[in-house]
Amino acid sequence: MDSILFLILRRMRAPLITLIVTYAISVLGFTLMPGTDASGAPWQMSLFEAFYVVSYTATTIGFGEIPYTFSTAQRLWMTFSIYLTVIAWFYAIGKIIALVQDPALRQAITVARFARQVRNLHETFFIICGYGGTGSLLVEALDRKGIRSVVVEITQDRINELELLDVQTPIPALCADARLPDILLQAGIMHPLCGGVAALTDDDHANLAVAVAVKLINPELRVLCRAEYQETAANMASFGTDHIINPYELFGEHLAMEVHALGTYLLHEWLTGTPGSSLPSPACPPIGKWIVCGYGRFGKAVIRNLQREHMQTVVIEADPQLTGCEDCILGSGAEARTLREAGIEEAVGIVAGTDNDINNLSIVMTALELNPHLFVVVRKNKRHNAPLFRKFNADITMQPADIIAHACLEHLVTPLLAQFLSMARGQSNAWANQLIGQLVETVGEQVPETWRVTLSGELAPAVVNLLGHNRTVTLDTLTIDPANRSLKLPLVPLLLVREDESIILLPALTETLRIGDRIVFCGKPDAKSAQPLLLINRKVLSYVMEGIELPDGVVWRWISGRHRHTAP
Amino acid sequence: MTCGPDMLYTAAIFTCIEDPAMNLEKVVFGFFIVLAMTLNFGFFIGDLADPEFHHPYELFAAIVVNLIATVLKFGDRTQIGAIHLSTSLVADLQLITAAVVWAAAAGSMAEHGSIAPSTMVSIVSLSGGAFLANVTSVVLLIIETIMLRR
Fold first, then answer.
1. Residue of B nearest to A41 (CA)
2. Which residues in chain A have their CB less than 8 angstroms from residue B60's CB?
3. Chain A within 8 Å of B71 (Cβ-Cβ)?
4. Contact list, A9 vs chain B (CB under 8 Å)
5. Residue B3 clears pLDDT 60, i.e. is over it
């Protein structure tokens, strides 16, 4: 910022000096030219009057000949002045305005303003590099959850889109290359309140560069990266990237989950959804022969997972050499002939996984004509084709952006949620179904809020105080409505992590609490806002536990103390 | 004959001329700064209240040269450059204020004899302040030059 400002000042010297010199010459001349006043006596302009006349001449305002009509000599000088000063004035003003509008200066000002906005953030925020399909989904979701984000994006158009977005809190955004460490520093990776960085650009190498830069500059900061190729993912892992998200692998795993553990999949989707959306309707993929069109990274991941579930797969690929497909049918899948060759009549499901949306749609249209009972899984690449896919209403529509955004939310929003979900994946489908039933009963069908409660001195003083006096406090206490102790808050405890890192999945309400516990709750937004009262306010906590109202203030406490002494 | 800064600087400039790597830009810079100071001094010196001693054209010349000197000091990133610019701005401020006071108090040049002595005193004392700022600027210039020579 400083260097460009000084450069501008230097460049302003020539125009300004021209201006000063031409003005000086004109003013001097005017004072010297002989004139006559109203009564005919000889008169010469004073310096101030000359300056006044030259001012309105140079700026082409031209009031007139003041205070007396000019003599010939004065008019001669006036003519000379006009040509001299007007040209100098236009040159100088034009040059100065052009300098102030210098693009480098404006860029420097924009960056400085962005850095100042980031510095003034007073709450936890996340840095999101790349505002494409995934970035925009994530930013919107974070905003609806009330979490601040900072965006760095390389194309100006997308930043313009972000500016037009209707958000709860302003989002500092910068149009710059996120690979540059300077930009990352200004986006706040050294800020004490930065909660993490999500590298979500569509270029794996850019994501890698971001991960490397952040891990070297601030190793403690959490980094989530999107990686579509194994080599980049391995590279990122070697630098200690916290979470590497490969959308294709994740989708493959989700598909497998849907086949054998639908309940777990539903639980997963529901807990990581954006607040306000409802439970996804279950779509259970049938077991049998599957046709997969497209053997790219997506196709490979799907096939690997389907084969793990012991499903028979047939691959149709347009370019077997490029993708390394050994045993597949040549073709794009959009022609009926190729599909028949693959055995579409006996298949139970089809996966259209090419990277072209129109191709995918035409594949499934052709397939459905040949076999109307197919289970359709279609890959959606671009967000702007959403209306087409919505109208088509396939059984499963896979969008890489959605998957990555969900995965990011899982890791960023509630840190223990990811742990809970990975433990849930290890449980049986029946367990998941039971949990969903319990959750829907308590929380309703909308996507619930998840939050973490830490029993520490600053965050839960009332509870810690009681525990410090060796009183037992059970988990049940934290689920009671602070307004009415006979009612329960609409929330469910999902995970309890003790200070010694021992974990209890779905803790029972009779579980005793200890100082330093961390509990993940899932519930309605009102529950999330009402619960802190129990943790912080001693009066509320004692009302909820014992039903007595503790007196407030020194006077009443003294009176009630005396009462207790005098009463038998 | 006033001595002091002028003589010292002239000495410095002569040593400069012998140096084959003399910088034209530095000559111009030094010229305008010293000229600003000398014109300012020329206007300032003399009986404070008597208009005979203080010619308006000299004030005009002092203002013009001071403005040019200020513009020449733009864009210098060093600490000394910043102080140079600030002293110049102070001098400009004072001189322009003096000119405004004079214009407000007087009519055309023919009337300049009828300016009240108190007004003249204000004008000249303002220019005196500007003179001190210019002296500071010249002293800084000398220090800078001597440091470079070492």
1. B110
2. 24, 27-28, 47
3. yes
4. 74-75
5. no
Mean pLDDT of chain A: 85
Which residue in the block uniquely carries the two structure tokens 């400009």?
B92
Helix (H) or strand (E) holding A541: helix A538-546
The interface predicted TM-score of the complex, written ipTM, equals 0.75
Residue B42 burial (CB count, 10 A): 18
Residues 86-145 of B with CB under 8 A from A: 99, 102-103, 106-110, 112
Is B74 within 8 Å of A12 when comparing Cβ atoms? Answer: yes
How does pLDDT run across A16-63, given as a tens digit for each residue?
Answer: 999 999 999 999 999 999 988 888 888 888 888 899 999 999 999 989
Residue B15, classed as helix, strand or coil, is helix
Nearest CA in chain A to B100: A48
CB pairs under 8 A between A and B: 64
pLDDT band at B111 (very low <50, low <70, confident <90, very high): low
B98 → chain A, closest CA residue = A48
Structural fold of domain A2-100:
Helix Hairpins (1.10.287)
Q: Looking at the partner chain, which of A10, A17, A44 has a beta carbon nearest the beta carbon of B109?
A: A44
pLDDT at B13 over 70: no
Answer whether residue A305 shows pLDDT above 80: yes
The Cα–Cα gap between A46 and B109 comes to 5
* Closest approach of B74 to chain A, Cα-based (Å): 6
Chain A contact residues (CB < 8 Å to B):
2-3, 6-13, 16-17, 20-21, 24, 27-28, 31, 43-49, 51
* HEC profile of A47-71: HHHHHHHHHHHHCCCCCCCCCCCCC
Asked if the structure places residue B19 within a domain, the reply is no
Domain limits at B67? 30-149
Alpha carbon of residue A123 to chain centroid: 15
What's the CA gap between A68 and A36, in Å, rounded?
7
Count, residues in chain A: 568
pLDDT value at residue A103 = 87
Cβ distance B107 to A46 less than 8 Å, yes or no, reads: yes
Q: Which residues of A touch B56 (CB under 8 A)?
A: 46-47
Whether the predicted pLDDT of A253 surpasses 90: no
Q: How far apart are CA A212 and CA A498, in angstroms?
A: 33
Answer yes or no: is B11 within a domain. Answer: no
pLDDT per residue over A493-524, tens digit each?
A: 888 888 888 888 888 888 888 888 888 888 88
Cβ within 8 Å, pair B77-A6: yes
d(CA A382, CA A151): 21
Q: Please state the domain count of chain B.
A: 1
User: Which of A25, A46, A55 has the highest number of chain B CBs within 10 A, making it the mutation to test binding with B?
Assistant: A46
- Sequence-distant (6+) residues with CB within 8 A of A238 are none
Q: Does domain A106-245 bear CATH number 3.30.1360.120?
A: no
- In the CATH hierarchy, which fold is given to the domain comprising A419-546? Alpha-Beta Plaits (3.30.70)
Q: Is the separation of the CB atoms in A332 and A359 below 8 Å?
A: yes
Q: Which residues contact B45 (CB under 8 A, 6 or more apart)?
A: B53
DSSP element (H, E) containing B40: helix B24-44
Q: Is residue B16 part of a domain?
A: no
